[in-house]
Amino acid sequence: MSWGFTRHDALRRFLSVQYGRVRSHNSNLFDMEPDNLPSTNDSSSAEEDFDSLVLFGMLRGNVVGLRYYTGVVNNNEMVALQREPNNPYDRNAVKVNNVNGEQVGHIKKELAAALAQIMDRNLAKVEGIVPYGAQNAFTMPVNLSFWGREENKQGVLDHMKKYGFKLGPIQQSSQGFQGSFSQRAHSQYNAPSLPAMQMTTEQLKTEFDKLFEDLREEDKTRELEPSEAVETSLLPHQKQALAWMVSRENSNELPPFWEQRNNFYYNTLTNFAIKEKPDSVKGGILADDMGLGKTLSIIALILTNFYDGKPFPVGKDIYGKSSLQDKSLVEDDSGKSSKKKHAMRKIDETHEIASSSKGETRPKRRQKAGKAKYTLSDSEEEERIPRKVKAPLACSVVDDDDFATALFGTLPAVKKKTKKKGIVKSSTDISTKYDTQMHQRTTLIICPLSVLSNWIDQFEQHVKADAKLNIYIYYGAERNKNPDFLSKQDVVLTTYNVLTHDYGNESPLHKIRWLRVVLDEGHIIRNPNAQQTKAVHSLDSERQWVLTGTPIQNSLKDLWSILSFLKLKPFTDREWWHRTIQRPVSMGDQGGLRRLQALIKNITLRRTKTTKVNGKPVLQLPERKVYIQHIKLSPEERQIYETMQNEGKNIIGRYFNEGTVLTHYADVLAVLVRLRQLCCHPHLVPTSLSGSLSGSSTPDELREKLVNKIKLVLISGSDEECSICLDSLNMPVITRCAHVFCKECICQVIYRKQPNAKCPMCRGEVRLEHLLECPEEESDMSDHEQKWISSSKINALMHALTEQRNKDPRVKSIIVSQFTTFLSLIETALRESGFTFTRLDGSMNQKKRTEAIQSFQRSHNDSPTIMLLSLKAGGVGLNLTAASRVYLMDPAWNPAAEEQCFDRCHRLGQTKEVIITKFVVKNSVEENMLKIHNKKRELAAGAFEGNKQTSSEIKQARINEIRTLVDL
DNA sequence: ACCGCCGGGTGCC
DNA sequence: ACCGCCGGGTGCC
Fold it and tell me: Could you list the residue ranges forming a coiled coil in this record (predicted)?
C-alpha cells in the first residue's frame, strides 16, 4: 500500500516547516554580506519554540513619526514591532504598535534597515519597551531586546554591528519580565530579596500541578439554587459551580491585571492604559474532573442565568414567579430597574406565545408531580422517565444524513420545527422581538461528535418539560443554515468538525452574536495553528465557557488558545501572553508564576473527585473492591500452553543471545499474545498467524504477514507508544522490518534521512512505499467456526455470573477482554446459560455503540444484564453505571487502561458497591504481567513531564519487560 | 521640533 | 561669496 500524490505533497509541506528547526550552526555564514544572512527557512519556529529562546542583548532605539498615528504609550509600556515590507517609502520599514495593536510610529530608518533582515529571517524576535512614552510628540525612545536561538546569537550581533549598532547588556531603564533584571518600581514586581533562582523542570512541574489545586475561595463556595426549569436537583458542588458561573457572567469586574487609575484603565503587565473599560471576562474555565457533572452545571447555567440575571421562564406564571421571586443576580442594578422590568415583560410575552405555539409540537413528557429529585440514576427513577432516545443514534461520520435523521427522530420538536413552515413562522415573530429589541438568546455548544448524543440526553433529562427550551442540533447535511433560524433557538448544539467545516464558507455560526458559547472538551483547541482553533476563535459571543478535565494538558502553551477564546485582554494577541506569562514562567521567574496563578485562580473552577465541600468529599462514590481470581488451567489447556511456551522461549531466547530482541520485537509480541490468548481459550490462537517472517516469500505473502503483524501488535495492546514520539500511536503503520510507528513520525524520519533512512528500532532500511497501514477491522472470526468448547476461564466466569444471578438477578455486569474473539466465545456460553447481553467493541460504528450503551443502561426488565466490552472501546466518557460488577478476563499491559475501564462504572451515578474480578491464570504470562503492572505504576507515579524516558531507556525497559514476561 | 536639516537670501560697520 | 550667517520651511517610513 502506498499513498497518493496529494498525501506526499501535504506531508512535504508539513515537513518543510518542521524541518526548519534543524538548521545550520555554521555562524561563519554571518560574515557574508547582509543579503546572505542565513535563513531559518522557517517562519514559525521562533513562535513555536518560544521557550527555548535566549536573550541576545538589548539596544536603545527610536520610534519616529508619532504624530501620524493614534496609538499612544505610557512610560515603561510594552510595544510590538512589526515588519512592513510593503511600505512604499522603505521596504525595510518596521512598525511599532502598542498593546492594543494601534500603530504608534516607526522604527527610525537606519535601525529599521538593520532589523529588517533579522526579523524577516526570524533570526531573532525583537521586542520593545518604551521607557518614557508619555508626552513625546514626535519621537520616543524604545528599548529593544533581541531573543533568539543560541546558534543565531553571534550572527545577529555581528549583523547589527555592521550597521553600527551594538547590542549591549541590560540597560538601566529597561523593563521586562526577564526575572533577574526586572527593575520595576511597582511593588508587584519588586525583585525578590534572594537572588532569582532558576527553577528546575521538576520544581516547575510541581508548581504547575499546584496551579489547579487549592482554588478554594469565597466566591467559589457560595451555592446557588438553580432555576425552576432545571428538573434535577443539584449536588452541592454543582450549586457552587452554578453560583460561580452566574456571578462571572453577570460580573462587571475588571479582567485580571487591570486596574483603574485616574481616568484610565491600566494593565499592570504591559503598562498599557486605555480610557475605555476593558470588557469583563464573562465566562471562564470549568475544569472539574470527569464525572462531577460539568454538563449538568452548564445546563443549569443556561436555564438560571438566561437573561439579565433572570432564569429561563417556566410555565404560564413566568413573570410573577420566576422572575420576581428570584433575587436579581446582576451585579450593578443602578438606575436600570425600570428599563429592565420593561424588558422582562416583553420576554414574558414572547414566551407566552412561544409556549402556546410550541406546545403541540413537543413530545409528551413526563407529567411532573412535585419536585423531581436527582437520585443517582438507577432503577425507579430511570423507569419513570420515558426515554425518547429510542431511535438509534446514528453518529456515523460517513453518513451525515442518517445521523441527522436519527437525531431529528430523537427530538421530534426539532424535527417538526424544521419541517413545518407555520411553526417556524410564529417563532420568527417572537424572536425578532428578542433579538432586535433586547438581547441575544442563543447558547452555542460545541463538542466532539462522540459526546453530542450525551448532551442531547442530558438536556432531555435535566430540563423540565414545561420550560420549553428550544434546542437545535446543527449537524448533518440537512442542517438549517439560516442565521435567523439559528439565533431563535435557545441552544444550538454542534461539533468542532462541523464548525470547522463551515468556517470561511458562509458559516452561519460565525455570523451570529451568541449569548454564550460553550466549548466542551475545550483542550481540543489547544493547537493555536489548527483550523479548528481559528474557527472557534472567530466566534462572536457575550459569554464564553470552556469545559475541560485537563486544562493544561502538556504545557503552559496550551492555555493561550483558551485565554484568547475567553477574550482575555491583552492575551488575545499571543505576543503579550508570551512576554508577560509564558516566557517568564518557563524561565523560572517567580513573578511570572505568581501572575499565572492569579490568572488561573481568577478564571477557573476546578474540583477533583477528592475535593471537599463542607467537609465532605464532593463525590461520595460507593466502595470499589478489586479481587484477583486465580485460574488453574485444565490439563489439556496446560499442555497446549506449555508447548507454545517452550517454543516461544526457544525463539525469544535465541533473540536474546543474538541481541536482536528489539529487531524481532513483533515476533516476540506475537509469542506473548499467543500465550495470553491461550490463557483465555485455546481457540483464540488463529492458525493463520503462526508463520514467522524469516525466509520471506512472494511480496503478497510478505504483505499479508506484515498486516497480520501490525494487527497483532495493535491487538496486543503492548505497543501503545510510538518509539519515535514516545506518545501513543497515531495512525499506526508497520515497516517492512515489522516495527510499528505513528505514520507521521516515521515519515519524518524517512524525509530527514533520505535517501538512506533507517528504522529507529533495528536500523533496517525503511522506505515510504513499504509502509503498511492497518486495514479496517474485517470481522475475521478466523477460527470461530470450530466446534464450541468452554475453557477454564470461561467456566470460572460463568460460575461467578450464575452465582450472582441466584443472589440478585438485577445486578448488571461488564465483561472485559482485549480479545474480541474471546468475547465472541463468551457470548456462546452466555447464551447457553440464558443470560441477556449486549456488546461494545471497536468494530462497531457510533450508531451501534450508542444503541448498545443505551439498552444496557436502561433498567427495564428486558434490558440486558451483561455488557461485553473490549478493553479499549469507548472514550473516557463511556458511562456504564448500570453495572456494578466488572469481570476483567485478561490483564492489560497498561494498568492505567484497566483503571480507566473500571471507572466506566465506578463514577458519578453509581449507587452500588462495585466489585471487580480480575481473572489471572496461575503460572503463566498473565501472572508475570501483574508484576510489570507494579513497576509501571511506580514509573507513572514518579513520571514528570520534563523527564520522560528517553527512547533508549524505553528500549531497555522493554527488553527487561520481555525477560520478566517469559521468565528468561 | 525650545531640535536638526535643507536651501534661499544675503553679505562692512 | 567656490564662504558664513540668517531665518523660514519643514519634519516617519
Answer: none
